[in-house]
Amino acid sequence: MTACSDASDIDTLEIATNDSTLATPIELTVFKSRTCNCCQKWITHAEESGFDISANNITYLNDLKEDKGIAPNYRSCHTAESKDGYVFEGHVPSKYIKQYLAKVPTNSIGLSVPAMPVGSPGMEMGERFMPYQILLLHADGSATVYAEIATYEEQF
Hints:
It is globular, with a radius of gyration of 19 Å. Strands 2-1-3-4-5-6-7 form a seven-stranded mixed sheet, with helices on both faces. By secondary structure, it is α/β, with parallel strands linked by helices. Helix content is 29%, strand content 26%. The longest helix has 16 residues, at 3-18. A hairpin with a 4-residue loop joins strand 6 and strand 7 (143-149).
């Protein structure tokens, strides 16, 4: 290869790498309580995974969750919503939000990690980890298991 050929290849690579259409960030609006620190930690996790987050502190989260179709037994501390209206309740790992949005299951409204499992994104407590399930929320109000997280590393 000549030097000119190498330079041309590098220029093409740089243009492709810098093309913003290749990596459009996923936009999420997060609804949370002003006083919840784990919600902010989850937002940091999502931003570090390339999400564009807009956070809103609201007082009556249960009203919002009810309006979004999230049954009480599937609720957690915060609710994220995509620009297309899909919901991500609680400490859902970014990896699974991306997977869900890449191929949205029929008749679903989003994903949920009920409660606040220790070791999930935003709920880190040293080396402690509690296996948990990510639930697929269906439009009829029911849920099924979308993924089972058995180890800390499976979240990423």
